């Protein structure tokens, strides 16, 4: 590169400094080989990086290919410089991931994990982050990767990158990665062990089957944690547990009474999912707590309607809706004005029917409250067939007899 060209580039860099990109002219493209041959020069390195940042598609100038060879050379003294550059450049959209999406490159990077861990791991993560396919290497290579990760848990981010797109994996992939999960669960450090649950959640979302009994191990390990992230991950996982978490019931009820909306929501969902599995004593405990939460949710600046609808649905599911409670009933009826949910309608019907058996006078008041609602007729025409059917049933079986 002659001095005038170099000075011109420096001026361009200063002009483009704010947006950290550079105008890719034919002249600059022609200078890329020269820049690469002396990439260790800070200004050349800066120009090359800005070239990459200016591209929205994988680069075709051989920048990554050249630096890859240098980075993993046994003799090139510039290898550490090249590795540092690649760690930065693989974050750009111009990273040519397809160039490295093959068994030869992946196996070479696996071998380099021992001596050039940071750069090799970064490249592997970037390849799997960018490439949505997983069939460019064989299952045996994946087994090698997973086996290495199991022995080196600092590489868990690589497993997460691989599982990011897992449609092409065989459904029994869990058998290959289960040693990693077991190893993580046995780690004494809580936030290291937590990563086992994080991986299981990924498998759940990807609909990859696994032995759900491992969720029970997670319950035993993490249920008493005070870390919100750990608890939230556990609650998401517990929705897929093979059995009701009887031993965790008191803790779940505590989470349902937290200030954190996502913990409240997941706790109420879990209690509802296993509604048929709670014994009568447990249902009574749940109902008592839910009634307290219900009235708490009516106060200003609380979770409000979304929390209330979950509570009503849970009370209906465990057959513990209050009878002859006009305040509760009125609040539930108010929901149909803003929420076309079939469980609200089922709760209304159930409460009126049961109250009629013990207090006809109170039931009559309930019917008048219901009759004052203007939304019931609209819900009978709702696009949701379940909602329209239940609304019509209330009109026919509860309201219509009153008008005869």
Task: Walk me through the structure.
- The chain has 404 residues and is mainly alpha-helical.
- Among the domains are: 1-96, no CATH class; 326-404, no CATH class.
- Helices cover 66% and strands 0% of the residues.
- The protein is built from 24 helices and no strands.
- The protein has helices at 3-15, 26-30, 32-37, 42-53, 63-71, 79-89, 97-100, 103-112, 117-130, 139-151, 156-163, 174-185, 190-205, 213-222, 228-238, 249-255, 261-273, 280-297, 305-317, 326-335, 342-358, 360-372, 376-379, 385-403.
- Helix 5 packs across helix 6 (79-89), helix 18 (280-297) runs antiparallel to helix 19 (305-317) and helix 21 packs antiparallel against helix 22 (360-372).
- The chain starts with a helix and ends with a helix.
- The model has no long low-confidence stretch (mean pLDDT 88).
- InterPro entries: ARM-type_fold.
Largest sheet: none
Order of helices and strands: HHHHHHHHHHHHHHHHHHHHHHHH
* DSSP strand tally: 0
Helices, by number, come to: 24
Strand content: under 5%
Q: From the alpha-carbon coordinates, what is the Rg to the nearest angstrom?
A: 31 Å
Mean pLDDT value: 88
Give the N-to-C terminal Cα separation: 98 Å
Q: Catalogue the unreliable spans.
A: none
Portion of residues in helices?
55-70%
Shape: elongated
Alpha-beta content class? mainly alpha
Keywords:
404 residues; mainly alpha; 66% helix; ARM-type_fold
How is this fold's topology laid out?
Layout: H1 3-15, H2 26-30, H3 32-37, H4 42-53, H5 63-71, H6 79-89, H7 97-100, H8 103-112, H9 117-130, H10 139-151, H11 156-163, H12 174-185, H13 190-205, H14 213-222, H15 228-238, H16 249-255, H17 261-273, H18 280-297, H19 305-317, H20 326-335, H21 342-358, H22 360-372, H23 376-379, H24 385-403
